[in-house]
UniProtKB/TrEMBL annotation, chain A:
One of its GO terms (molecular function) is nickel cation binding. Belongs to the HypA/HybF family. Keywords: Metal-binding, Nickel, Zinc. It comes from Streptomyces nanshensis. Involved in the maturation of [NiFe] hydrogenases. Required for nickel insertion into the metal center of the hydrogenase. Signal peptide: none annotated. PANTHER family: HYDROGENASE MATURATION FACTOR HYPA. This is Hydrogenase maturation factor HypA. Pfam families: HypA. PROSITE patterns: HYPA. The keyword Metal-binding applies. Zn(2+) binds at residues 73, 76, 90, 93. The keyword Transmembrane does not apply.
TrEMBL record, chain B:
One of its GO terms (biological process) is protein maturation. Residues 227-259 are annotated as: Disordered. This is Ni/Fe hydrogenase formation protein. The keyword Zinc applies. Residues 237-247 have a biased composition (Gly residues). Residues 33-195 form the CobW/HypB/UreG nucleotide-binding domain. Pfam families: cobW. InterPro entries: CobW/HypB/UreG_nucleotide-bd, Hyd_mat_HypB, P-loop_NTPase. One of its GO terms (molecular function) is nickel cation binding. Keywords: GTP-binding, Hydrolase, Metal-binding, Nickel, Nucleotide-binding, Zinc. Belongs to the SIMIBI class G3E GTPase family. HypB/HupM subfamily. NCBIfam families: hypB. The keyword Hydrolase applies.
Amino acid sequence: MHEMSVAVAMVEQVTEAPAGDGHAKVSAVVLRLGELAGVVADSLRFCFSLACAGTVLEGAELLIDHVPGRARCAPCGAEWATGMPPQLCCPQCEGGRAELLAGREMQIVALRHGEDGPGPDPAGPVPVHAKES
Amino acid sequence: MCRVVDLQQAVLVKNDERAGTLRAELAARGTTVINLLSSPGSGKTELLEAELALAASRGVPVAALTADLATEHDAERLARAGVPVKQVLTDGLCHLEADMVRAQLEGWLPDGTRLLFVENVGNLVCPASYDLGESLRVVLASVTEGEDKPLKYPTAFGLAQLVVVTKDDIAEAAGFDEEAFRANVRQVNPGVEVVLTSARRGTGLGLVLDRALAVAAGEQAHRPVMARTGEDAGTDTGTGTGTGTEAGSGTESAHGHTHLHTRVHAHPHTQAAGVPARSQS
Ligand SMILES: Nc1nc2c(ncn2[C@@H]2O[C@H](COP(=O)(O)OP(=O)(O)O)[C@@H](O)[C@H]2O)c(=O)[nH]1
Ligand SMILES: [Mg+2]
Ligand SMILES: [Zn+2]
């Protein structure tokens, strides 16, 4: 259950965020989570709620932006969705020199500060569009 | 009124940084770390005991840390090899982290130790995400665990730099299908070496030691596809998460997380805009 350690690390990262907002109440945390990051989203959500207790994140919502795995084989140019379990061997040339374009992310990409609490956004449901980075 | 702050902050960045620093510091002392991962009961302790004894007989200075949730049995077994061994009790934590390894080394790791083996907590899920400052990550599976193990634990096998099959002496009885196992490893980690061993019979003994010594001598360990991410992808000399100094190829990690981007900026949003959002699945 390293999701608990991941959740605790997230809380640490947020409370020490270099934006100088260390003590402003946080109502939501947006996490980019790759398909191949080795973390179970539901388990993380549960651990996150526990890890937030007694901090500026108390009651904060965890918004998970799922990133599918993608790989690219430089030698032959093939690009594919890795799937789960991942296919990391090139499906076109069977080579083993591909690189992962996406899928291992475990990054906090945004914090929402506000008194409004976690309630649903009037503009629509929670899901967050993957940002370009 | 609500504000959104954009961060690009890797969650496990602290562990990655500590691991990079530890790797560089140990490299400067001439020590290379080998991280051993497997399910409980795969045979880590038994194989490690034999490899440590072999190293001792060849005069290679080695040492070992062994992690367990609660008991000291494994340290007692390993100590029979006659090399420095220390038990790490994780008190229920399912994996080791880099600063836990560092804390054990102070005042214990003998000067001149060439190889430091770390037997991780028996678990194929959690330890896979934590770099311990190793330069070689070995993932083990016994012949009784099923050929599909690499597909069930793709993060562990996908980031392995050496895969060791254990208990080969009972492969036949267990109906172990070596070709199927190799094909599954290849799917998640093409190019990684797979070796067969039996600590009982002594077959394949010394392979782990040889690979570890090669890496300690500066040979670049296998770079798994799963570790070829971000800016260093596509180069064969990328530093993974390595944030330490370049003290030779043996100091590089091959299993990083997404890098830390310190691009941090805040900008106001109206409540209606909220987190940049749109409906999606
Ligand atoms: N048949 C056979 N059994 C082994 C071998 N290596 C270990 N074992 C047995 O497998 C069990 C677990 O081994 P251990 O080294 O404690 O596994 P660990 O939990 O991964 O450290 C023990 O009962 C060992 O005696 C081997 O090469 N062949
Ligand atoms: Mg053991
Ligand atoms: Zn290809």
